[in-house]
């Protein structure tokens, strides 16, 4: 404040001296004084009465566009209304800046001229016209070269102007401060070390301008030095040798490697083109494509590991500078194997067909496997299905033998489709297969088998000769001659009768025929064996038991054996007339040689003189009186009793009993009935029964003896070996083809006369010479006796 008063006082003294000469009052104040600050007391300095200032309408007329100052009419003080900026007020650079004003008073009118000098203070820092100064300097510029820099401007004056410049620390650059003709300061940039754009392409410097004020103010500007390139660097690859791996079968256009050579230069000096060197083979250039602009190497041709595994190439990178510089690298491309080749199977030998009884561990096939791939991709495994009776045995590297591991049976599996599957160990694994068909040849290892081990065949008696009884078919799972079966009956004699005379079997199909008519009452069953033999070598056979049961027919009528009588005669019985009611008169006994069912006999009256007099028990044939005789009853009673069996249709026999009643025997008979006597086993009825049974047994025995004698007179058939299938079939076919069957009586009588002449058979018409007739039965009444036991006779027509 003291300094401020000092400035004002000196200005006033100076103004007073000057006013004598020019009537102008001078004041000096520094710029930027605070609002309300008092500049001077005009009333005192101008010798004016303070009290009259208001009356005289004192006012301040300021020659400026702003009202910086004003006068206090009560005190006469000149004070600051608005801060004064010298640089704003005096736009032109002058050493002295004045603010002119007039103080006007009325009554009387007086005008005072006042000049207010605005003194500069260092309130402005130096400023550069541009915040950044850009310089382009070639990296080939020699040291000591100068480059002009823009100077800084400071709106202050005097000692507050720019005094000097400073440059930030730099190894390549320095500055030298120069003084212009007008006293202004500027700086030159000097290159003190050679530039290398590849090391540092841009240098960022800070230029600082400092004024002479106290305290000093400064301003800065960025100096950006761009180092211009020259082609002084060749292209450089990241590596001198590249080892690249690529999968075989990579698609065309697949990227192998992206070469990126770098050139530290810029512009056209860093534009690079790529090319193969002369040392790169044509095969490599045909397989890979090199992009000259980008350096990309891509697949151009087919890559096959098995054909070519390593590719070597040299690539040159050249820039586009005026004097082109080059760099080169070596690339080694390793083709990696991929599992692209299927394993291969080669059948070196295969034995087919083989017999089903082949020995275990016999070699069936020799197989080799291979795979063009490498590593795990080339390691292969061979296998066959586990559910087959074979196994693989490695004989040498990649050679395997297929051997029999289990017994073979053609009847279970006739052929095997053996699939050899080879699989490599790649990821994913590849496989291949080969299927071979092994055919098994049959051996005669199976005996013929009948569906049953025991056959029961029921044959109705009175069958026709040659009737089919049953078909006994065996099965042989073998093939061809091993399954061709021949059937024959195993010879067995029953009562000097061979089974082959009773039955015949078709050797081809096993059809069993009856050769004679069977009678249940004579033969009830037969038990024999039939053998089925195959045609293998050696032949195998099996047999089955056949049980022939003759089934009864109701072909025998009941025979009345009691009361006995001669054939066609009438039985006469005498009984006392005094016979009591319920007395046994007679007992009819009939016998039936049929089976039990057909031989069940019931008795009935067919005719009776008086139905009220006699009763007949239908089951036991007892005839009893139903009442006592009366004098009206006829003396002679005629009873006709029929004995009927239970067959269908029923057969019967009748007996006629003529009863005569006697008066004289009444008492004796009554006495006999009143007093029971001991049972007499030789009563008349029982005697008749015994005689009848004895007679029937005697006749049966005579028949059997006659049959045995006839059989003994015939030559016994020799027990030859069972006929072969071909001989049996040919004999049977020739017999059937050359013979004519005489199957009924009508056909018989059309060929032969009804009677014989002197024991010879007389024909009715000429018969072909050599013809043969099979007669199933000779009609009765011809006088010829069929003494053979067989059901059919053969008549050979001679010369």
From TrEMBL:
Which keywords describe this protein according to UniProt? Answer: Calcium, Cell adhesion, Cell membrane, Glycoprotein, Membrane, Repeat, Signal, Transmembrane, Transmembrane helix
Q: State where the protein is found.
A: Cell membrane
Is Signal there in the keyword field? yes
Q: What is this protein called?
A: Protocadherin alpha-C2-like
Q: How does it sit in the membrane?
A: Single-pass type I membrane protein
Can you name one GO molecular function term for this protein?
A: calcium ion binding
UniProt GO BP:
anatomical structure morphogenesis; homophilic cell adhesion via plasma membrane adhesion molecules
User: Where's the Cadherin domain?
Assistant: 21-128, 129-237, 238-345, 346-450, 451-560, 575-678
**Function, please?**
Potential calcium-dependent cell-adhesion protein. May be involved in the establishment and maintenance of specific neuronal connections in the brain.
Q: Does the keyword Repeat feature in the UniProt annotation?
A: yes
TM segments? 687-710
Q: Which organism is it from?
A: Maylandia zebra
Q: Name one GO cellular component term.
A: plasma membrane
Which InterPro entries does its entry note?
Answer: Cadherin-like_dom (IPR002126), Cadherin-like_sf (IPR015919), Cadherin_C (IPR032455), Cadherin_CS (IPR020894), Cadherin_N (IPR013164), Protocadherin/Cadherin-CA (IPR050174)
């Amino acid at each position: 404040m003291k300094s401020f008063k000092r400035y004002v006082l000196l200005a006033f003294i100076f103004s007073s001296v000057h006013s004598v000469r020019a009537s102008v009052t001078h004041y000096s104040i520094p710029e930027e004084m605070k609002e309300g600050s008092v500049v001077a007391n005009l009333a005192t300095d101008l010798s004016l009465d303070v009290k009259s200032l208001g009356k005289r309408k004192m006012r301040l007329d300021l020659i400026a566009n702003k009202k910086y100052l004003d006068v206090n009419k009560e005190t006469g003080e000149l004070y600051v209304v608005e801060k004064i900026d010298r640089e704003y007020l005096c736009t032109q650079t002058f050493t002295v800046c004045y603010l002119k004003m007039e103080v006007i008073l009325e009554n009387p009118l007086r005008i005072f001229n006042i000049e207010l000098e605005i003194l500069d203070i260092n309130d402005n820092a130096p400023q550069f016209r541009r915040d950044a100064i850009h310089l382009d300097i070639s990296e080939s510029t020699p040291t000591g070269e100068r480059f002009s820099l823009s100077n800084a401007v400071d709106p202050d004056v005097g000692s507050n102007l720019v005094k000097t410049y400073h440059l930030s620390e730099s190894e390549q650059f320095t500055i030298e401060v120069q003084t212009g003709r007008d006293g202004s300061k500027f700086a030159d940039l000097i290159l003190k070390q050679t530039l290398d754009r590849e090391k540092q392409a841009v240098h960022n410097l800070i230029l600082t301008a400092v004024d002479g004020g106290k305290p000093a103010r400064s301003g800065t500007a960025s100096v950006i030095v761009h180092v211009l390139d020259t082609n002084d660097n060749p292209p450089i690859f990241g590596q001198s040798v590249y080892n690249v791996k690529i999968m075989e079968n990579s698609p065309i256009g697949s990227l192998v490697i992206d070469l990126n050579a770098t050139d530290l230069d810029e512009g056209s000096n860093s534009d690079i083109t790529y090319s193969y060197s002369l040392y790169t083979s044509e095969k490599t250039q045909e397989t890979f494509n090199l992009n000259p602009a980008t350096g990309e190497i891509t697949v151009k041709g087919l890559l096959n590991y098995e054909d070519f595994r390593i590719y070597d190439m040299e690539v040159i990178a050249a820039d586009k500078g005026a004097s082109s510089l080059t760099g080169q690298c070596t690339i080694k491309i390793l083709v990696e194997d991929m599992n692209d080749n299927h394993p291969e199977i080669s059948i070196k030998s295969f034995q087919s067909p083989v017999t089903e009884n082949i020995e275990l561990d016999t070699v069936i096939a020799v197989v080799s496997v291979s795979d063009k791939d490498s590593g795990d991709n080339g390691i292969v495994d061979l296998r066959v299905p586990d559910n087959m009776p074979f196994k693989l045995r490695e004989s040498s590297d990649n050679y395997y033998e297929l051997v029999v591991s289990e017994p073979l049976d053609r009847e279970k599996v006739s052929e095997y489709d053996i699939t050899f599957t080879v699989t490599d160990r790649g990821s994913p694994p590849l496989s291949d297969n080969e299927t071979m068909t092994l055919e098994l040849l049959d051996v005669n290892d199976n005996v013929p088998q009948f569906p049953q081990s025991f056959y029961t065949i029921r044959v109705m008696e009175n069958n026709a000769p040659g009737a089919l009884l049953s078909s006994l078919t065996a099965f042989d799972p073998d093939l061809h001659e091993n399954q061709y079966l021949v059937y024959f009956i195993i010879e067995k004699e029953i009562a000097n009768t061979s089974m082959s005379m009773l039955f015949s079997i078709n050797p081809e199909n096993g059809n069993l025929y009856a050769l004679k008519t069977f009678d249940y009452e004579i033969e009830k069953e037969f038990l024999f064996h039939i053998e089925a033999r195959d045609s293998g070598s050696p032949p195998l056979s099996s047999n089955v038991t056949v049980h022939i049961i003759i089934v009864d027919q109701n072909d025998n009528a009941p025979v009345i054996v009691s009361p006995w009588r001669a054939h066609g005669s009438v039985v006469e019985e005498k009984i006392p007339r005094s016979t009591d009611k319920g007395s046994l008169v007679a007992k009819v006994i009939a016998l039936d040689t049929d089976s039990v069912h057909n031989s069940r006999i019931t008795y009935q009256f067919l005719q009776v003189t008086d139905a009220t007099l006699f009763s007949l028990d239908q089951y036991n044939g007892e005839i009893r009186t139903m009442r006592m005789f009366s004098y009206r009853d006829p003396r002679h009673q005629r009873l006709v009793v029929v004995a009927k069996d239970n067959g269908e249709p029923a057969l019967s026999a009748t007996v006629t009993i003529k009863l005569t009643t006697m008066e004289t025997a009444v008492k004796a008979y009554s006495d006999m009935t009143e007093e029971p006597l001991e049972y007499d086993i030789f009563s008349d009825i029982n005697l008749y029964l015994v005689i009848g049974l004895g007679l029937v047994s005697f006749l049966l025995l005579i028949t059997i003896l006659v049959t045995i004698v006839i059989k003994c007179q015939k030559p016994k058939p020799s027990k030859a070996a069972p006929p072969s299938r071909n001989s049996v079939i040919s004999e049977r076919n020739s017999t059937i083809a050359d013979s004519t069957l005489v199957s009924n009586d009508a056909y018989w009588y059309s060929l032969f006369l009804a009677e014989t002449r002197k024991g010879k058979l007389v024909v009715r018409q000429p018969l072909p010479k050599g013809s043969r007739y099979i007669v199933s039965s000779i009609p009765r009444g011809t006088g010829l006796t069929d003494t053979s036991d067989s059901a059919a006779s053969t008549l050979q027509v001679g010369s």
